[in-house]
Design a protein that fits this description.
By secondary structure, the protein is mostly beta strands. It has one domain. Helices cover 15% and strands 50% of the residues. Strands 5, 6, 7, 8, 10 and 11 form a 6-stranded antiparallel sheet that branches. A 5-stranded antiparallel sheet has the order 1-2-3-4-9, with helices on one face. A hairpin with a 2-residue loop joins β10 and β11. The two termini are 18 Å apart.
């Protein structure tokens, strides 16, 4: 999985760079990528996150990501930078996270290490409101490519 590098600028003039690789998605309705964002000051210094982009015409609501590594499930909640809207329906406190907005799930260093050292499989399950949108299983040669790209992403260039 080749790593692509880009540089971007915040409206404040702060330059940051992103290194990312795209993960094959098995159902064709999302684009998955793991992104490392590196900046020189707050709000971005160095973070790695899972980006999910919906490629269909319908706006989907996403609430969580589950990562299953060798049979152990890890819940990854949405990044605070995600666009949130509080619905005014029955449950006024429910937060919805929209895929067409900034859409990331920040990985902890521990979870990145667990994925990089997986022996059998890694499964990314995108969770939507009251449903899941698909569990993507990575094992064998694809898992090895994922792990190799993850290690390459972690290197300082």
């Amino acid at each position: 999985m080749p790593i692509k590098e880009t540089s971007q600028m915040w409206p404040t003039g702060e330059v940051f760079r992103e290194r990312k690789f795209v993960i094959p998605e098995q159902f064709g309705n999302f684009e998955f990528s793991i992104v490392r964002r590196i900046g020189s000051r707050e709000p971005i210094t160095d973070m790695t996150y899972f980006r999910v982009e919906h490629v269909g015409p319908k706006r989907l609501i996403m609430t969580a990501l589950w990562v299953t590594v060798d049979g152990v499930v890890y819940g990854v909640s949405p990044a605070p930078a995600l666009h949130q809207s509080i619905e005014r329906g029955v449950d006024r406190t429910s937060k919805r996270y929209y895929l067409r907005q900034i859409n990331g799930f920040i990985f902890t260093e521990n979870l990145l290490n667990v994925i990089a050292n997986s022996k059998e499989s890694v499964i990314f399950t995108v969770i939507g409101e009251k449903q899941h949108f698909g569990a993507n299983v990575y094992e064998g040669a694809v898992l090895l490519q994922l792990q190799e790209s993850l290690r390459e992403l972690g290197k300082d260039n």
